[in-house]
Amino acid sequence: MTRYALTLEFDGAPYMGLQRQAHGPSVQQSVEEAVFALTGETTGMHAAGRTDAGVHALGMKVHIDIQKPFTPFTLSEGMNARLRPHPIAVVGCEVVPDDWHARFSCIGRSYIYRIANRRAPLTLERGKAWQVPKPLDAAAMHRAAQILVGLHDFTTFRSAHCQSQSPLKTLDRLDVRREGEMVLIEAEARSFLHHQVRSMVGCLALVGLGRWDERKLAEALEARDRQALGLNSPPDGLYFVKAIYPED
Amino acid sequence: MTRYALTLEFDGAPYMGLQRQAHGPSVQQSVEEAVFALTGETTGMHAAGRTDAGVHALGMKVHIDIQKPFTPFTLSEGMNARLRPHPIAVVGCEVVPDDWHARFSCIGRSYIYRIANRRAPLTLERGKAWQVPKPLDAAAMHRAAQILVGLHDFTTFRSAHCQSQSPLKTLDRLDVRREGEMVLIEAEARSFLHHQVRSMVGCLALVGLGRWDERKLAEALEARDRQALGLNSPPDGLYFVKAIYPED
């Protein structure tokens, strides 16, 4: 048995989420079926994060165990051939120790959220960004975002379905910048609560629109109450960028 | 009657091309139907360029004549509402003089071509770039591209279906640069022949792969013969960026 760490890029639009679901297609199902088609082996895929329906990934890290011998190159080529026509690609592959775990060994995760700040409906970016028609003040959003950085009880920014034992998380970075009509929000932490990035982005958008000020955002955080959440942003704009491990 | 210049953004994937076609959907048909839905008027759309099936636009300029009164804002909002769910959006709208013509008044056109230079299949970029698996030397492509800049007989780089009276065109700019895994090619001219950008990109890719050198490219140009073309690139990576007018 050899353990391989795969870096996956995928378009989340056709999936109910990364994790295998009883009621619809998932990234995990497609990957496990590709492994079976390639090797005849039944394996379980483990991922650094659990992304929701419609959420994309540029560099999701997962691991799989395989008996049949492969080099990282032949495995990624074989997987990519079997993954077609799914919009999932293996963009990196390496052999890792048997005790390395994509989820439990991971010490950092980063996301990017893309807002298309324009009146016109999206065409080429459809499903790949959140369209906000009214002008956003990205500088005000960045200033307000700094309120959320650090160790906090993020109950307000946590889905009712969140399975994390504690709502206490340390947010390492939350940067907002404008690039033309796009407003980009980058978030980094050891780990995130369910819906945390989308919930933070939703409230930052309210700040960017001038409907919330920094005091209102601070109050929402301090409330530790999901009812205090102003807005949850849609999944379309969210991308899992990178998982970080001690050896990186 | 008022003449409006619209700036269109569209995803070319679902269309047989920009121009109305008997055998399938076109951007022109969708736009003319949106005008009819909005105004009850039958109008003909005229465009700065005629893009092929699968070719995208970031800023295609077109004009339409409408009797019913609109401000540019109400026209673009009304058009965008009626264009749904088509991946076509009005991203700019202005009133122009009655003798202004999107095609005949245009004095410059620019395109960008996007090559995803990577082994892994495309996921988020599927249909939006040309995937070239082997490494491309973008610097060598840029140097070779300068052979094509200037006034030339571009017969080699012209489709058999090209309706232009002359194969003589002045290419003002052809720049190649790498941004991460993407190789971007920007082309500017007063006008282009049918398939000219895709044909030039195809041959530059051969240079980038080391299969052609600059001498081979110069010979292909001098041959003035479609048979001398090395490779025509697919439409997926091509974007009409901008049309330029004397008043700009």
UniProtKB/TrEMBL annotation, chains A, B:
InterPro entries with a match to the protein in the record: PsdUridine_synth_cat_dom_sf (IPR020103), PsdUridine_synth_TruA (IPR001406), PsdUridine_synth_TruA_a/b_dom (IPR020097), PsdUridine_synth_TruA_C (IPR020095), TruA/RsuA/RluB/E/F_N (IPR020094)
UniProt KW keywords: Isomerase, tRNA processing
GO biological process per UniProt: tRNA pseudouridine synthesis
Keyword GTP-binding: no
Binding, substrate: 111
Catalytic site positions: 52
Listed EC numbers: 5.4.99.12
Single Gene Ontology MF annotation: RNA binding
Domain Pseudouridine synthase I TruA alpha/beta positions: 9-104, 144-246
Keyword Transport assigned: no
UniProt enzyme class: isomerase
The reaction(s) this protein catalyses: uridine(38/39/40) in tRNA = pseudouridine(38/39/40) in tRNA
Assembly information from the UniProt record: Homodimer.
NCBIfam families, per the entry: hisT_truA (TIGR00071)
Function noted in UniProt: Formation of pseudouridine at positions 38, 39 and 40 in the anticodon stem and loop of transfer RNAs.
Family per record: Belongs to the tRNA pseudouridine synthase TruA family.
HAMAP family registered for this protein in UniProt: TruA
Protein name: tRNA pseudouridine synthase A
